[in-house]
Amino acid sequence: MEEDAISIQRIIGGRAFYRASVADALQACQTGDFGKGPTKPYDAQFMPVIIDTRINSSKSARIWETWFSSLSVRVTGRTSLGSSVVVYGHTPNYFSNPKNIRISLDNLRNGAGIMPQKEFQKLVDLDEAEDDFGNRLVWVVDYETLKKSKSGLISVSEALEHPQTIPFLGGENRAIKYLQEHKINYGNDIGVWHFDDLDEHPRGRLLVVGNNCNNNLNGNNNLNNNGRFVGIALAVLRLIFMKTYKNLYEEIYSLNNLTIAWRKARKGKTKKDYVREFENDVLGNLFKLQEELKNKNYSPMPLKTFILRDPKTRKISKSAFRDRVVHHALVRIIKPIFDKAFIYDSCANRIGKGNLFALKRFNIFKRKVSNNGDFLDNKFNDKNFVFGYCFKADIKHYFEEVSHDILINRYTPQLAVGIN
User: Fold this and answer.
1) Helix, strand, or coil (residue 5)
2) What per-residue confidence (pLDDT) applies to 214?
3) 92 to each of 1, 97, 122, 378, 396, how far by Cα in Å?
4) Which residue has the higher pLDDT, 310 or 79?
5) Which of 61-65, 93-97, 323-327 has the lowest mean pLDDT?
6) What are phi and psi of 52, to 5 degrees?
7) E strand or H helix at 268, and its extent?
């Protein structure tokens, strides 16, 4: 394994991005810069993901061997109602942008940077907010309570009661598990560090988890220190962190869904013999499909194959009409789920996209490549047009040869449809 490779539970592609400054490390992560320039973007992780990774990794894993910065913040300030509080946030915030970290360096106080009041209040208003998985994202802690608590080395057995521990780690259950692993890996003591950052402006720091008993839950790290972020390739995140949807199967075979699916399947084909045959007893056929799906003994009929020349010769496999109803019933439920994971410029068979949208996007990219039509020097000294490239490709026999086992294994965790 490469030195900067990080193994993250259920994720392939975790990498460590280190630089001499926090802002530079974060920028390197977000641009995928491993020292030779930007590559593909990586998503810097919040503290709960780093902690979960430690909990599920062996003592010898790199995630335990060194310290890591996170996008999670600890911000001290006064709310719009005048209350002095400390906010722990595991959600995108003002300091998630390296540019804003650099701006804050001009007015640091004891290493803490100014966060605009409006941005601070946004975090305050998110108190107790949860993500799609039920994980709490923000904690608002009373300033005086935290100020009176110890900043330094304490016993692991007492750490759960410390006002910073649970908000820092992202929840009580996670904190309990982590403290157990910390004790095994680092010993009976743990460093829980914070600083009195109350000022006329909200001031914040990024949370850092250390690699020894003393410097562990570090809430007083300076924004002008060095940084090391765990990054996950965005393309991987789109697949891995899809929300898990349960009880979908019942929705698929519901009579209401099957009825809508039948109407979609018959659209533009009402004069076809196979449609008329199905509609001779449409309710009976829909009830029969529902029972077969519910009892899990539904089996599609053999495909009818024919050759189509338009002008390329293609072999087309055609499903029976009853099976097309099932296809529409399935797609109607799962399409909105998968659509969220598609890139913005994926245009085929998507609502609001299509050929016209694709052409508009192509023109946008064309203008970028051509520098909006400005002439670029080239070895041919040709001033009639600007050189650029468009890559056209197709995956040969994809639908015939794609591995169904790989697809099923990849998406089964996300789609708990209840099919055995």
Assistant:
1) strand
2) 83
3) 30, 9, 11, 43, 41
4) 79
5) 61-65
6) -60, -35
7) none
